[in-house]
Design goal:
The chain is built from six helices and no strands. It is mainly alpha-helical.
Length: about 130
């Protein structure tokens, strides 16, 4: 998984275990890394939006967004993502529905170097950014 951030790598592992059909489909079409990175980027964007624009605490925002794109419900619990309007989006469609962020490696590198509070699965954004 070259050039994938921590959240994207965690998403792939989660999908492999809990959504094996989705994982196999994305892997066989060569879109696994792209979908995982898009899921990570969208999670970060949603997290920043909730904390910075809506004043939500980091931990509450993380709880609200982590299952939208990264840690999808299991195939057993939700066999077909997208059938229920309250369910999470299917990452297989993230590559075409979520505009990828500009590939600004220096900006990404600066974000990755910021100190992040010790919080499960945190990566780039931290409450100190507020």
């Amino acid at each position: 998984m070259p050039n994938l951030d921590s959240w994207a790598q965690q998403a792939i592992q989660h999908w492999k275990e809990f959504r094996p059909s989705l994982y196999r489909q994305l892997k066989s079409t060569g879109k696994l890394d792209e979908a995982a990175q898009n899921a990570s980027d969208q999670t970060e964007s949603d997290l920043e939006n909730l904390v910075l624009k809506h004043g939500m605490s980091y931990s509450s925002a993380w709880e609200a967004v982590r299952e939208r794109y990264l840690f999808l419900p299991s195939e057993k619990d939700v066999p077909n993502l997208g059938e229920n309007p309250d369910s999470s989006p299917d990452p297989a469609n993230l590559a075409s529905t979520i505009a990828p962020r500009a590939k600004n490696k220096s900006a990404r590198a600066r974000r990755n170097k910021k100190s992040v509070i010790a919080f499960p699965q945190s990566k780039r954004f931290s409450p100190s950014d507020t």
